[in-house]
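Protein: UBC core domain-containing protein
Species: Gorilla gorilla gorilla
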Amino acid sequence: SQLLGRLKQENRLNPGAGGVAASGGTTEVAELEANLPYEGYYQGGKFQFETEVPDVYNMVPPKVKCLTKIWHPNITETGEICLSLLREHSIDGTGWAPMRTLKDVVWGLNSLFTDLLNFDDPLNIEAAEHHLQNKEDFQNKVDNYIKRYAR
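Structure follows.
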């Protein structure tokens, strides 16, 4: 697809390189798969993201949804993602801008599992509160989700 070509060009990635693989069909939708770091809550998980690039890209951000069920403070169990660079308008200036690329989106998605993991401003409030109340039980639930949904 055009999206897959654009992603390869922008990221200078071959499918599977750098922990991310992309596959596309006949539409402007691609699935990204992230193999996450060997540390942190989500180690060993394989998470798929659907990325839809609008006709007016890159004036507006792509639409991204997590296809893998996950227990995460910034991703709902139905796949909505809280990542400022995916917002068309952002008060703090970290939202989408025309100079951003799909490479930035891939970086942002990977960062949601490491340095941008945010328990203080969650989209999935229940997951954030679970972490606050019992970190060990939170880790157990994350591990259970990875075993069931992210292999």
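Remarks: The first strand starts at residue 20 and ends at 24.
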